[in-house]
Amino acid sequence: MVSTRRTTKAPSSSSRPSSPSPPPASPRGRKRTTSASTILRSGIKKNGEEEDIPISTTTNTTTKNHQNHGYEFGGPIGAICITILLPLTCYFLVFACNETTGCDFIESIIGLAKEKKKNSFSLLLIPEKMTPVFSLESCVLFLGWIGWCVMLHALLPASIVKEGVDITSGESGGEKTRFRLRYKLNGFRVFTTTAVACAVGTYFGQIQLRSLHAKFLSLLTAGCAFAFALTTFLYVASFRVNKNDKSKKNKEKKTRKSDKIDNGPVVLANGGNTGNVAYDWFIGRELNPRFSNSLFDAKVFCELTPGLIGWLLLNFGFMHEQYARLGFITKPMVLVNAFQLMYVVDALWNEPAILTTMDVTTDGFGFMLVFGDLVWVPFTYSLQCRYILENNVDISLAMTAFIVIVQATGYYVFRQSNGQKNTFRTNPNDPSVRHLKSLKTKRGTNLLISGWWGIARHVNYFGDWLMAWAWCLPCGFDHIAPYFYVAYFGVLLVHRDLRDGEQCELKYGNDWKRYCEIVRFRIIPYVY
Ligand code: NDP
Prior knowledge:
The chain is built from 19 helices and 8 strands. The protein is globular, with a radius of gyration of 23 Å. It is α+β, with helices and mostly antiparallel strands. The protein binds NADPH dihydro-nicotinamide-adenine-dinucleotide phosphate (NDP).
């Protein structure tokens, strides 16, 4: 998962949940060599005319986009272990924390339980109200949900069609062509259309969001099965072209103008092209899977639409269930729903920012991202709402006020810092950033050393983590389980900071070292 991230000055102001990211498994300073098997694609001009988007050509054997990785995540063995552990963790969080057994299991295994439980494993049960674990109905529902999102994505107009970052085509040692893919972005429209459909369906009694609680486990099973199937399909499909033949064919096509988009053959991701089946399946062999002559990009679609909106639907389902049980909605439920809604809306509103993230520019679309996007995010990030429902949590007004302050502070730091860098990267002469000090670099893109980015190298992560606390605190202090998110996310952000630091060192060399001397803290000012 480590490679060049931003090669263009595209906006990067948003945040979005991403793949579950285990701690770093590989040291810094790996040797990077060329692995290029990317092939030219073409795009479409505004007037509908076909247009290739080459940026430049080069015959270098290594480029920013084509550097092979050493193994990450513990190599093939690590990839297999993570593949097993991720779904197990999703189930574990349900079995270990539910209204049938309570949430004592986790405390009992780490020795925090108030009463010593003789048999901790009796606390680990399938919750009665969530059986069966597998149902065909839920499989159909899950597939229907994905189908609904694909349909809306295809039918609704794009809010914006945007170019991604540079990709380099060509075989190792051969001629390379740098080009950019184009993306249809309409996640926010998919979200609003779904919200309206749900509101109307609920009003007329056609949609019962509360039923998502009872179906939670079987939906999780359906999601896991879908993630394994989709990953395998993507892996097999990544072998679908004869690169050289297609490359020639592609070049011929360019000369015959047509009104169709030709997305061309496979572009392989550096990290997921090692030749080891288990590892490549996990990391993802193909960088930007596209299967039709359209702007539909499977990875960007999954990163933003079904998982994020699905997460909100689960949250609202838990809120609906609480209303049905109690006749009212509790403060913690309102808080967590509102905060997470705000987070997802923010991510969808700033959708173009996804194109510059390492998930999109670098990582293949393998199990790590497929599972992260479609299963991990909706089924583990909704833990707090489920916990509040199943444990009848309530909090004082003072605590509510405190949590709102934590969320507001976190959001302010997160949005301001991300926005400041985005403005600086897109228009350094903008009045809001013109006065900020920056470090000139040989690479050409300067680094901010005052303002938010002078306080800590990833102060935006700090804001995000503060929000994570605001999502967990409404769950009270009876159990540790709902704090899973804050702990996991802390590990993810520390890991991400290390990976980004590695990349920046590769991109900026000594300039990055100088920057680190000037801005000493990584994430939390004066602490870390
Ligand atoms: P960042 O937005 O932190 O961007 C890092 C990049 O910014 C660097 O690679 C570098 O790229 C540039 N940069 C670094 N320092 C400076 C500087 N001083 N001045 C100018 N540019 C600089 O990356 P992420 O994609 O990791 O995070 C984006 C947001 O997404 C964060 O707020 C994060 O919290 C959130 N997030 C949320 C997740 C979730 O599950 N909820 C998961 C992952 C991320 P270059 O110089 O090439 O421009």
